[in-house]
Amino acid sequence: MDRKSHLIDFIKNEIMHNSKANLDPDTDLLGAGILDSLGVLQLVAFIEKSFHISVPDEDVMYDNFMSINTLINYLQQYG
Amino acid sequence: MRYILPLAVTQANERNPDKEAVRYSGKSLTYAELEQRSNSLAITLLEQGLKRGERVGIYMNKSLESAIGMYGIMKAGGAYVPLDPYAPTTRTGFVINDCGIRHLVTSHARLDAVRQILAEKSCLEHLIGVSPQPDMSLNCLEWEQIYQSPHHYPGLNLTEQDLAYILYTSGSTGTPKGIMHTHRSGLSFAEWAATEFGLTPEDRLSNHAPLHFDLSTFDFFAGAIAGATTVIVPEALAKFPANMAKLIEEERITVWYSVPYALIQLTQRGSLEKRDLSTLRWILFAGEVFPTKHLRELVRMLPSVRFSNLYGPTETNVCTCYHMERLPEDSDETIPIGKPCANIEDLVVDLDDRQVAPGEVGELLIRGGVVMKGYWGQPEKTANGFYRRPALDQFEDIFYRTGDLVQMDGDGNYRYLGRKDRQIKTRGYRVELDEVEVALLAHNSVEEAAAFLVPDGQGSNLIESAVVPKIGANLSEEELIAHLSGRLPPYAIPVRIDFLTDFPRTSTGKINRRELQEKAAARQAETA
Prior knowledge:
heterodimer, A: mainly alpha, about 50% helix, about 0% strand, B: five-stranded mixed β-sheet, about 30% helix, about 25% strand
């Protein structure tokens, strides 16, 4: 599975608690109320563990975490 | 003289019309613009037939328009009711009907939610801030149309005893309750705060709290009294410590006010050492206990900043304040909630309402202008919330019962010891655990339910729960969370639901919540 599918699965199952949710990769995760501050921390922990990437604190910003697509763009620098 | 809250803006406009009043995402309103636009909104609302004391909802993300909404509603003699934009629509619909909201200040982003609210019986008639919607029978008005209304102050005969705003909070019976504040209670607090923290027009205050949170009344009203600038922290950025630190630097914030949880996040993940925060002079916090371990770290990072702990339930604004001079060096004992503010009388009583001796534990009661008018539509609950102390022949002193247990230390500072009831704080949010249990029990397949608080290892607490499903019921965690999502705001939904065949019991057969809590806390400590 690619990163995008992994992220979508994680957000649906662990954050939205709804495996049948319809989650568009461009959805504003904050604006739609999907991510709160706890969710952001869960997501960072998931990325670090699953993709073996260490996300610096100063990169945990709205611009990077706004949607699944912005997150994928951000993660591209890690190859 | 100021006898109603919006006069703070009117007077700041007379003194300094070109000064920035509110900033949001790089845009701003001067005091002249805020004054004129809120006047136009007030005149529009009056033309729509708004009556004195009528409730008007504000249902949108924070923005320049939500600030115009607050002042415009109050200038028209209405009471503003901030509605949590992230609450389930059934809950928002309940609040709208509970206090009879006909006029709603909203935004296009909330229209789908408004449609869901309208699908049930609703008293809504007017939407402010959106274009006409062909599928809705409501009267819709855009801001551009509203700003064409006259700009003069409508000049109603309002008094300090008129209703100014209602803040809804978790209710132990399963539905939210509305805390009514008058112009007097709002002003009593805001004027005290503007003086206590020496606010001037040069100050730039953060607004981190949502509008339905009482902390926001400091950011806006104390700020306007001083003629200062209030910088709104957009909801989305408030979830990211790095964004908050950037905003403090770029917006040259001088006074920051938030719950401790936001400050702990800022300390741990805000990369503060990389920011120039030299404009920051005072950090205020309230809402829950700030663990000393984390506070010490923040003080170390910001050595030139002053720190103050403000205390008070939403019902009383702020009643005690602790200006921190130093932290305990070797112990993690929490800091006190401080001394009573100059404008209140404090009283500590035992279970029989007898005053206890200084240094003894008791419930804190509060009297003064800062105290709320009561709970909307709940005269009995309001009556139970107050203690009437016989005073002079013809008078009674009326105290609000905070439900908080306190003890005065040797320096005359109060220390907070806990609650008399099951009200809790999770990351600054106030929740009645009874409301969470009522929501769990409302599911057809749940026989018994318990909700309890567990430390989160981050300096705050999270709600966990356990349920015993009905015999033969096929209930999944996902289904139960979906059910809760329709009833509770996101922060009140338990982060964990255990399914049990029976609960541990006390000797009298009641659910042993303490045992559940202790097991969960032990598990959390192991994984942390």
